[in-house]
């Protein structure tokens, strides 16, 4: 792989030029991690990046008990092994939205201790915009592998972690839109309250993307964090609707070297269904 490869795995982000230069590398596995709240693909670009395998995030979410800090390792290992992935492989994940569900798969692989895993900035839209070819079908996986997990490289949070965050000097940062955060609109999932966890900070994922949909990086990204009221010296729990864009926030914090960030996978799907306090405007 190219000489800047180590920085790729450190930041957790790759760009289209890097992926294009590595396409066909036998040491690299590409995963299509597209997932939508409504499970529809209306408005999403068609096509698949060459050699990409399909990672079924919908299945993993369905098999993950609400409220657990991490996805069930047995289910996750079965999925990983069925794709022929080993712990020594390098993995790049993208989605058809651009930057939405792929970071959740980055996070779950990190929960298995996988070191060389990153997300494609801009996803499939950026790949197509750069003029690269696509396929109509996903590639076939290699023969089933044996994957040996290592200690998690990321942190997970539970409802109890959230309820005691203030006592622990932990900030709660919410990736949902401002309208959902402030309770101006109904939640897309049924039987959930509108609003946000008391004392949490609104940081919509889209506020961390430029006009082309590319995520901000480096000092520009840190500047937005600080402007949102985030203290970069204090630990963070990220939350969203169901743990997907919360993982995207965790990846972006990770990309600038902030590692004391836990993802609340239950997020509003769990908290919004409880009798715990809720704040709105």
TrEMBL record:
InterPro entries: Rhodanese-like_dom (IPR001763), Rhodanese-like_dom_sf (IPR036873), TST/MPST-like (IPR045078). Keywords: Pyruvate, Repeat, Transferase. Pfam families: Rhodanese. One of its GO terms (molecular function) is thiosulfate-cyanide sulfurtransferase activity. PROSITE patterns: RHODANESE_3 (PS50206). This is Thiosulfate/3-mercaptopyruvate sulfurtransferase. Residues 24-136, 166-280 form the Rhodanese domain.
């Amino acid at each position: 792989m190219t000489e800047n490869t180590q920085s790729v795995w450190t930041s957790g982000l790759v760009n289209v030029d890097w992926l294009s230069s590595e396409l066909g590398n036998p040491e690299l596995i590409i995963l299509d991690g597209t997932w939508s709240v409504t499970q529809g693909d209306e408005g999403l670009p068609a096509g698949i990046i060459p050699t990409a395998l399909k990672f079924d995030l919908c299945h993993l979410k369905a098999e993950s008990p609400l409220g657990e800090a991490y996805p069930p390792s047995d289910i996750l290992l079965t999925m990983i092994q069925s794709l022929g992935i080993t712990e020594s492989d390098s993995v790049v994940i993208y989605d058809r939205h651009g930057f939405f569900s792929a970071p959740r798969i980055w996070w779950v692989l990190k929960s298995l201790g996988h070191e060389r895993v990153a997300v494609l900035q801009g996803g499939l839209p950026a790949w197509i915009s750069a003029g690269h070819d696509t396929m109509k079908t996903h590639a076939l996986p290699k023969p089933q592998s044996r994957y040996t997990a290592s200690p998690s490289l990321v942190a997970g949070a539970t409802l109890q972690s959230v309820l005691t965050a203030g006592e622990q000097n932990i900030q709660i940062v919410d990736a949902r839109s401002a309208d959902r955060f402030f309770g101006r609109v109904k939640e897309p999932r049924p039987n959930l309250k509108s609003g946000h966890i008391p004392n949490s900070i609104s940081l919509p994922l889209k506020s961390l993307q430029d006009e082309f949909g590319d995520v901000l990086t480096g000092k520009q990204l840190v500047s937005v964090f600080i402007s949102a009221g985030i203290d970069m010296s204090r630990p963070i729990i990220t939350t969203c609707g169901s743990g997907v864009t919360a993982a995207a926030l965790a990846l972006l914090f990770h990309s600038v070297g902030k590692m004391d960030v836990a993802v609340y996978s239950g997020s509003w799907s769990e908290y919004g269904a409880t009798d715990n306090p809720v704040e709105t405007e």
